[in-house]
Amino acid sequence: MNFLYGKMQTILVLAPGLTHTRAGHPENHTRMTAVQRSLERSGVLADVTAVSPQPASIEQLRRVHTPSLIERIRTVSRIGGGLLDHGDTYATADSYELARLAAGGCCTAVDQIMNGSARNGLALVRPPGHHAESNRVSGFCLFNNAAVAARHAQANYGLKRVLIFDFDVHHGNGTQEIFYDDASVLFTSVHMFAPYFYPGIGSFDEVGHGAGVGYTLNVPLPPGVGDVGYCRVMNELVRPRVEMFQPEMILVSVGFDAHWQDPLASEGLSLTGYAKIARNLIELADKLCNGRILFILEGGYHLDVLTAGVHNVIYSLLGRDEILDSFGAMPYAESDVTQLLHKLQNRHLPK
Ligand SMILES: [Zn+2]
Questions:
Q1: Average pLDDT, stretch 68-83?
Q2: pTM of structure
Q3: Among 21, 76, 155, 236, whose Cα sits 20 to 30 Å from the Cα of 30?
Q4: 307: burial class by Cβ within 10 Å (0-12, 13-18, 19+)?
């Protein structure tokens, strides 16, 4: 182990939201009980510093969300819970407080990293956030945790450039909407893009609006892209774009549903591929912004993949070589990304 990344350098914020749950719903509390049990069993918790999450203040939430969205979630919780949209985004009696804790927990992690108490970290929070727009909940997400954390970093520490890198298999429509006309946050989403696949946006042509043109980078992948394609996207497109941007902090929306075993999607990443992307991002943070990087959990619905993937992120943050991967690589041929990459390079990188 590299001594620079030793104990006390990596923080873990846990806001598992256990009573935000619904039987038969894929985004339920068992995702986090499985992760917690597995972290306790493996002993890795001894190597990270656990930090208690603080609930997000109304001021922190209002930097990202409208008062009416905040009030709506609060009201539905107060009456005992129910559906928040016409799809499958639910709240229980506790969800308002738990969602505040999830968003606030990410801000707590930003504080630790920005004040130098930690080098990097992982926020294991529920409910997830990246589909939540300024005035609309969607896709199991209530408050947009990564967006609230980014605005907190800007408001409290004066950061001029924050990168949000999202590689959940679903497009981070909420994060995109919140920062669409904003050049101070580079939003990069690598996601599956196919007919009828949620949320249905995140196309090549969505690049930002007004002052934000060029600060939204969507990588809409066909189904079946595996480790080779993702690695090319990282090295030939994301890395050079991020190096141009020079972020002062990196926030990562990490969802483990791009794994080839995930029941909700059809991408082909392996756990080893996930770990390599995590290391790539950590290396970028080390090079560009003093190692300041925070991973924030979004989706991931195969519990064994989720628990191993979380371990691999922690190992990567700690600078360890170890990778858990009992599933191996996708056993099918990968979809090719060459043409897509050329199109995106022409659009987003200097000629
Ligand atoms: Zn997802």
A1: 96
A2: 0.97
A3: 76
A4: buried
